[in-house]
Write a structure and sequence with these properties.
The complex is a heterodimer of chains A (about 260) and B (about 525). Chain A has helices spanning about 20-25, 80-95, 100-110, 135-145, 175-180, 220-230, 245-260, and strands spanning about 1-5, 10-15, 50-55, 60, 75, 150, 160, 190, 195, 205-210, 215-220. Chain A has about 260 residues and is of the alpha+beta class. Chain A is globular, with a radius of gyration of 23 Å. The N and C termini of chain A lie far apart (about 45 Å). Chain B is of the alpha/beta class and about 525 residues long. Chain B is built from 21 helices and 16 strands. Chain B starts with a helix and ends with a helix. Chain B has helices at about 5-10, 10-25, 65-75, 135-140, 145-155, 155-165, 180-190, 210-215, 220-230, 245-260, 290-300, 330-340, 340-345, 380-385, 420-425, 445-460, 465-480, 485-505, 505-510, 515-520, 525-535, and strands at about 45-50, 55-60, 85-90, 90, 100, 195-200, 235-240, 275-280, 325, 350, 355, 355-365, 370-375, 395-400, 410, 435-440. Classes of the chains: A alpha+beta (about 260), B alpha/beta (about 525). Bound molecules: flavin mononucleotide (FMN), iron/sulfur cluster and FE2/S2 (inorganic) cluster. Flavin mononucleotide binds near residues 175, 290, 291, 325 and 506 of chain B. The site of FE2/S2 (inorganic) cluster has 12 residues of chain A, from loops.
Chain lengths: ~260, ~525
């Protein structure tokens, strides 16, 4: 363990750990849109700016990509950082005018409106909320191993979607993308036995039915994927049941066990 | 016959074909060879004639119609005076013995007194335009691969790194990081596999020095890389060449196979246990792929998007292994440093800025071309002595150095030395060495708009200040140019410039606002005049 100093407060950290993680653990608020602990730091949203006052690279840098080192000292809220962040927020307000998360942050920074031209596309699959933080692309590729979506184009024409805007054959419908999205831009919908990833070119994924009550409760390819990840002796039972039936089943087993009765599956 | 891309564009290949067929038909005892480009692009096509005992004479602006009289004169031991540009009695190829051509033709101006060449010092372009880039024997003839032999057989890797450190050589790819120090980082990394990369992506519009270095003297780059690989402990190297450079790729490919045949690439070079191989990777065509981390991603088959540093390539580069990456011109200097010594090299140029730099002089200047001068040479020398001033005698307003993200330097500051610190001080950068000359009629707001248009187009889109910020800068510049802007817009432009510079992820964004910042600094009146006009209309 080593010691770093954030805003004058000493914090313990793992050597090499992302400074953003250290700060979060300490309850120090640094806005960040593109960081997720399970993924490698990406350094794209530039919101997590901090100023290194003592350390290897002094000056303004991003906290997510800053590795904790003994004696590192940073400030997270200098007037320069705040004004840079405010300008970045204005750019985000223009880029993703429908995002409530961005508007909420703007409010906290006392920004009423952006000075920049707002981009609104009526048919935007990402609901004019995407800020291109790349979390969805990375979680899908790096964690889920599916790689169903990617960047299309470059510069400010960059979009995120499935290749050629066609329904994806590899999307498992797991929804990890929607869960990590900091601006709730990704939409999907479950209707009876099908999940439709509305943001991803309407990709359709069949839903798996509970073997007990018959309710369609989870994307089938994802159930298969999860099954493969489990130890062989666990691969059969639990995932056949929807969450409701599963808890009932567990309760039943618990009661039976407590009475000393033999338990069957 | 000078046959680099620039010469071919001027029609050199047709002149070459005409010379070839005439020589064959008339059974002249004349050998015709291809050479690269000596850098005087304005005067191309160039033909060098060497008659036994006579100086090498450079003929300029040669056309197919001239071939007959050139050959006729040569057969009688003469050269056509009206085509003669200058003569070279002897030449120092820096790494080899002096080439003595001969004497005579006193009436033809000497190379050393030709205004275009006089202020130049050829270290990198030491053999460009004089040897056949497709023939390894000609490279041997100018001392080629002797520096490699010296490094491998007489020096330890640490000695080599030390020599590069004391030479003071700084990277020629833009940022000017000390090369020896960089080598040391990778050398010190413990790893079974290490890589070296030659960055030949050269994406700056108007810059073509790397292309010429590869087309005119490809072996010097291989030799530099071999020496670097030995010093660092790498067994594999990659040359990343932009796909728009087919001739460079062709000549490098040929050079690699010749070097392999001579045992200069491959296993147990010079009978030692040092082994090294090189492959060529074609560029993905995006400007940002020249940035080192994006370049590495591109070689690995991923989209060329920069990633945050650290980790630096020296720690985690190609395929996650320690990797040293240098620019073409940086590698080109290495054989010289080993052959002549780091101390000798450090004597060229000015303190902290040793050696020479090849600049591409383009735009509204009389003599366009590639000029190699010691660092610290003034802009004035480059533009007025070498470049002979504005095109057709017109006045010059400014130069823009360092590629699309360099700054515009006004004529009043032309005494500024071309070195890293001074260029930064006036708001510009060295970059890859592009110098665009602008005449008095140029609108500086328009110029700034042009460059922001370029960087906006080339932004990879990963980080918000560069991606969104440049877009809005461009919109504001358009508004100013259309006469619809207010003073507040100029202020927003300044604020955005600062934001993009300070908060962008990679060098593209960090330098992209330079054209706006410098034109605002030196030509603010032009912005104000446009704003004024919109107020009165
Ligand atoms: C947008 C961008 C484009 C670049 N393009 C090139 C290039 O075309 N060639 C090059 O050698 N370096 C280029 N660089 C610099 C490289 O990232 C790297 O610093 C350089 O190759 C290191 O070599 P050196 O130390 O020999 O200069 C570029 C940097 C940026 C930010
Ligand atoms: S500064 Fe521009 S080019 Fe560099 S990573 Fe950011 S968006 Fe991409
Ligand atoms: S969280 Fe650090 S740049 Fe996005």
């Amino acid at each position: 363990m080593i010691r770093v100093v954030i805003n004058g407060k000493a914090c313990t950290a793992e050597k090499g750990e992302s400074l953003l993680s250290v700060a979060r653990r300490k309850g120090i608020d640094i806005p960040a849109f593109c960081y997720e602990e399970t993924l490698a730091p990406y350094g794209a949203c530039r919101m997590c700016l901090v100023e290194v006052v003592k350390g290897a690279q002094e000056g303004i840098t991003t906290a997510c990509t800053l590795a904790a080192a003994e004696g590192l000292e940073v400030l997270t809220q200098t007037s320069e950082i705040v004004s840079l962040r405010r300008a970045l927020i204005e750019l985000y307000l223009a880029q993703a005018p429908r995002s409530e998360a961005i508007r909420a942050l703007a409010q906290r920074y006392g920004i009423q409106k952006t000075r920049f031209a707002r981009k609104v596309r009526p048919d935007d699959p990402l609901q004019n909320r995407c800020i291109l933080c790349g979390l969805c692309v990375r979680i899908c590729h790096d964690v889920m191993g599916a790689g169903a979506i990617n960047y299309i184009g470059r510069g400010h024409f960059t979009e995120i979607n499935t290749p050629f805007y066609e329904e994806s054959a590899v999307c498992m419908g797991c929804g990890a993308c929607a869960r990590v999205c900091p601006t709730q831009a990704i939409a999907f919908e479950d209707i009876v036995q099908t999940r439709t990833m509305k943001s991803w070119s309407g990709t359709r994924v069949p839903l798996h039915a509970c073997s007990k009550c018959g309710r369609h409760f989870a994307p089938a390819p994802f159930v298969n994927y999860a099954r493969q990840k489990l130890a062989p002796d666990l691969q059969q039972t639990p995932l056949r049941l929807c969450p409701d039936c599963r808890s009932r089943e567990i309760a039943r087993k618990a009661v039976l066990l407590s009475t000393g009765a033999a338990v069957a599956d | 016959m000078g046959l680099a891309t620039c010469g071919i564009a001027a029609g050199a290949d047709r002149v070459y074909a005409a010379l070839e067929s005439a020589i064959r038909k008339q059974e002249h005892n004349i050998q015709l060879r291809r050479v690269g480009c000596i850098g005087y692009c304005r005067e191309e096509p160039l033909v060098n004639i060497h008659l036994p005992g006579k100086p090498l004479v450079i003929l300029h602006r040669v056309t197919e119609a001239d071939t007959g009289r050139i050959l006729h004169a040569a057969a009688t031991g003469d050269v056509p005076r009206d085509l003669a540009l200058c003569r070279i009695n002897a030449w120092d190829p820096i790494v080899g013995d002096k080439l003595v051509f001969g004497t005579g033709f006193e009436d033809i101006p000497a190379y050393e007194t030709t205004p275009y060449f006089a202020p130049q010092q050829k270290i990198v372009l030491r053999s460009a335009g004089l040897i056949n880039p497709e023939d390894i024997d000609e490279y041997f003839a100018v001392g080629g691969y002797t520096a490699l032999h010296k490094a491998i057989t007489e020096m330890s890797p640490a000695d080599v790194v030390h020599e590069v450190i004391i030479s003071g050589l700084r990277g020629r790819g833009g940022a000017g990081f000390p090369t020896g120090l960089k080598w040391n980082f990778t050398k010190e990394e413990q790893s079974l596999r290490k890589y070296i990369i030659c960055n030949a992506d050269e994406g700056d519009p108007g810059a073509y020095m790397n292309r010429n270095e590869m087309e005119s003297d490809p072996h010097m780059i291989l030799e530099g890389m071999l020496i670097g690989a030995y010093a660092i402990g790498a067994r594999e190297g990659v040359i990343y060449v932009r796909a728009e450079y087919p001739l460079a790729i062709e000549r490098l490919t040929a050079a690699i196979s010749q070097a392999q045949r001579h045992g200069l690439l491959g296993e147990n070079i010079f009978g030692t246990d040092f082994s090294f191989s090189v492959t060529i990777a074609g560029g993905a065509g995006a400007f940002v792929c020249g940035e080192e981390t994006a370049l590495i991603a591109s070689i690995e088959g991923q989209t060329g998007r920069p990633r945050p540093r650290p980790p630096f390539p020296a720690q985690k580069g190609l395929w996650g292994m320690p990797t040293n990456i240098n620019n073409v011109e940086t590698w080109s200097n290495i054989p010289v440093i080993i052959h002549r010594g780091g101390k000798w090299f450090s004597g060229i140029g000015v303190p902290e800025n040793s050696g020479t730099k090849v600049f591409s002089l383009v735009g509204e200047v009389e003599c366009v071309g590639l000029a190699e001068v010691p660092l610290g040479t003034s802009i004035r020398t480059l533009v007025f002595d070498i470049g002979n001033g504005g095109l057709r005698g017109k006045a010059i307003k400014a130069v823009q150095t360092g590629g699309p993200s360099g700054g515009c330097i006004p004529a009043s500051l032309f005494d500024t030395p071309l070195d890293y610190a001074h260029l930064t001080e006036v708001g510009s950068i060295m970059g890859s060495g592009g110098v665009v000359v602008m005449g008095t009629e140029t609108s500086m707001v328009d110029t700034a708009r042009f460059f922001i248009g370029f960087t906006d187009e080339e932004s990879c889109g990963k980080c918000v200040p560069c991606r969104e910020g440049l877009k809005h800068m461009l919109m504001i510049l358009d508004k100013i140019l259309a006469g619809r802007a207010s003073v507040a817009d100029i202020e927003i432009l300044e604020e955005l410039s600062g934001l993009i510079r300070k908060t962008s992820l990679c060098g593209l964004g960090q330098t992209a606002p330079n054209p706006v910042l410098t034109t605002l600094r030196y030509f603010r009146n032009e912005y104000e005049a446009l704003v004024e006009r919109s107020r009165s209309s």
